[in-house]
Amino acid sequence: MENALLVGLSRQMALQREMEVVANNIANIDTNGFKADFSLFEEYLMPGARDGNFRVADSPVSFVRDRGTLIDLNQGPFQHTGNPLDVAINGDGFLVINTPQGERYTRNGALAINPQGELVTSEGYQVLGDGGPIAFQNQDTGVTINPEGTVSVKDPSNSSVAIIRGQLRVASFAQPARLQKEGGSTFSAPADMPATPSTKSNVVQGALEKSNVRPIIEMSRMIEISRSYAAIANLLQSEGDLHKTSLQQLSDVPTS
To answer: Cα 203 from chain centroid?
Structure first.
């Protein structure tokens, strides 16, 4: 009976972790550039007893083990905003940004210009170009970002002439599944996986990539997890009651 209780408890712990992942996905349905997570579990076989005095060896006991989470890097839907500072990355690339922790990567293209004239993310991080942070001057108007990521403005003396302010760095990775989330839509890369210029991406101005979370599937999964958790709780309660009854009966002293 102890095995049944332990196996059930291992499954409940896994379901609790999965519920946290699903809840976080649902909470970020409206987060630009957010990538959904999904849980990964594996079977863990407890070795059987090896005491030579047993007539029949114990069978392995199968537990559930939380192996971790994986990131769904599929592209989310685009929402056209018409804002010239909004950009979406069509392809596998990431914008490179400068944070207090160093260079990081994001698909959240809701950009703005800070008081210093620098192009920044919605969190205030500098957006990096090939030559460093991209900066504008006070008189700059008519910001244009072409599919290659070139940022330009109109010449004040001749509106038909474009002045280039920088080139967005759009990075890609050989093993993007190894990227690590650092909150919101920001990712970091392992030290042994350098960022390389993306050759399969283009920039879409005036659009944002929305979260790739699928609300209906996540809500259905949440209901399924809740029902599984409740079913196991009932099973554990029944096993506990059976265990208690067995101990009570074994401890009863015959009266005759």
So the answer is: 22
Residue 171 contacts residue 93 (beta carbons within 8 Å): yes
CA distance 177 to 89: 18
Ordered DSSP codes for 153-204: EEETTEEEEEEEEEEB-EEE-S-GGG-EE-STTEEE--TTS--EE-SS-EEE
188 near 179, Cβ under 8 Å?
Answer: yes
Q: What are the pLDDT digits (tens) for 144-177?
A: 999 999 999 998 777 777 899 999 999 999 999 9
The domain locations on the chain are: 2-73+213-249, 78-209
Tokens of 188: 């970091």
The answer to whether 108 and 181 are in contact (CB under 8 A) is: no
Token pair in block for residue 99: 């944070």
Q: ∠ CA 241-242-246 to the nearest 5 degrees?
A: 115
Element (H, E) at 251: helix 215-251
- 72/21 Cα distance (integer angstroms): 12
Between CA 110 and CA 207 the distance in angstroms is 9
pTM (2 d.p.): 0.79
Query: How far is Cα 127 from Cα 112, in angstroms, rounded to an integer?
Result: 10
